[in-house]
Specification:
The protein has 317 residues and is of the alpha/beta class. It has 10 helices and 10 strands. Strand 8 and strand 9 form a beta hairpin. Helix 4 packs across helix 7. The longest helix has 23 residues. It comes from Halopseudomonas formosensis. GO terms for molecular function: transferase activity. This is Glutathione S-transferase.
């Protein structure tokens, strides 16, 4: 089995989701710390400009977005399943709701002035300003807009009451007695809330939710060993990308293999990544790119939430 290398930082909600995936599956992995804000030169050497956290590296294959990372880890170790047999669509749909709707509520609540003050207590003002400027840039393009704080505050009790009722009536996890990707996707926005003393009180009235969070926390994060970024880049340079399927090419936009394309997220963090299209299938896009430090890498993106364009075409849309 190839080395699993996770590029992340401790406070990232989506990185916590990925760490829990590794813990649930009992996998060993290498941990590469990345900056929480741009620039991220070592990560860029691997991804070509994808800025979101986390990123999974396996040799010279780079996997972007936790939705695709979950699929890749499922291939790495099938049991316990992140997408239980017969409930794949339900698990994926619930996970998407957690990653988008629940996450946006958590962000809006955590970005209130008093909540930001608590989260960044003791940090220099320039660090706080730099973080806020970076996050503003992340949302400056794409289709996502920041949820208004008063709307998030009004809707949060509704979301939590629904979750409380579900957990009281339907077993220990969202899909019953076994955990799935849905639980991890709903957990990480709440984990982000719980980590902030200014807003963690908003979880106190939901004992079933807190017990569920404790169960998920107990999955841990697997066995990790620290790795420096330069070593991860060397591994990419000294490796060859995994062989791609010889059939199954499916292009929803009539593209051809070998075309120079860009891939970008459609919601936020929409920085384009340029490369040569080497594979498309139902739920994955793969481009090849050359980097002077990392060599030839294949960068993988999920289909849902991303768009692929011939170089120069996206700017004309």
């Amino acid at each position: 089995m190839n080395q699993l290398i996770l590029h992340h930082y401790p406070q990232s909600p989506f990185a916590e989701k990925a760490r829990l995936m590794l813990g649930l599956k009992g996998l060993s992995w290498h941990s590469v710390m990345i900056p929480p804000v741009m620039p991220k030169p070592d990560l860029t050497a691997l991804t070509g400009g994808y800025r979101r956290t986390p990123v999974l590296q396996i040799g010279a294959d780079i996997y972007c977005d936790t939705a695709l990372i979950a699929q890749r880890l499922e291939r790495e170790k099938a049991i316990p399943a992140l997408f239980p047999e017969g409930q794949e669509a339900v698990a994926a749909a619930l996970a998407q709701f957690g990653d988008q709707t629940l996450f946006q509520h958590s962000i809006a609540i955590n970005f209130q002035p008093h909540a930001l003050e608590a989260r960044f207590a003791g940090m220099p003002p320039e660090v706080i300003k730099g973080f806020l400027k970076d996050r503003q840039a992340m949302f400056s393009s794409g289709t996502a807009s920041r949820l208004e704080t008063d709307v998030a505050l009004a809707q949060w009790p509704v979301l939590m009451s629904r979750l409380e009722t579900q957990l009281e009536r339907n077993g220990e996890y969202l899909l019953g007695e076994e955990p799935s990707i849905a639980d991890l996707a709903w957990y990480h926005p709440l984990w982000f809330m719980a980590a902030n003393s200014a807003v963690s009180v908003m979880l106190e009235d939901y004992p079933a939710v807190r017990a569920w969070m404790a169960r998920i926390h107990d999955f841990g994060s697997g066995a990790s060993v620290r790795m420096e970024a330069e070593e991860a880049i060397r591994i990419a340079r000294d490796s060859e990308p995994e062989p791609l399927p010889e059939d199954g090419f499916v292009s929803t936009r009539g593209l051809n293999l070998g075309q120079e394309v860009t891939v970008r997220a459609v919601d936020y963090g929409s920085d384009p990544v340029a490369g040569r299209l080497v594979h498309e299938e139902l739920d994955e896009i793969v481009i090849a790119r050359e980097d002077e430090r990392a060599g030839l890498v294949h960068v993988h993106f999920p289909r849902v939430g991303y768009r692929v364009d011939v170089v120069g075409a996206a700017e004309k849309d």
